[in-house]
Fold this sequence. Notes:
Elements: E1 2-4, E2 10-12, H1 18-29, H2 44-57
Antiparallel strand pairs: 1-2
Amino acid sequence: MIHLNQYGFHELIDKPSSEELSEYYKKKYYQDGNIATYRHEYLEEEILYFNNKIEQNI
């Protein structure tokens, strides 16, 4: 259920616990191959790109 809090924002009443969130992200989010920002392995071109970006910031 959602309610309007004292600051004027909508807020969940029954929020998931820290343990539930931790379990969700550990088992679902970071393991989902459809997530574009995280992978178990990167292509050689992606590694080269990341390394070049690091070098630019040094």
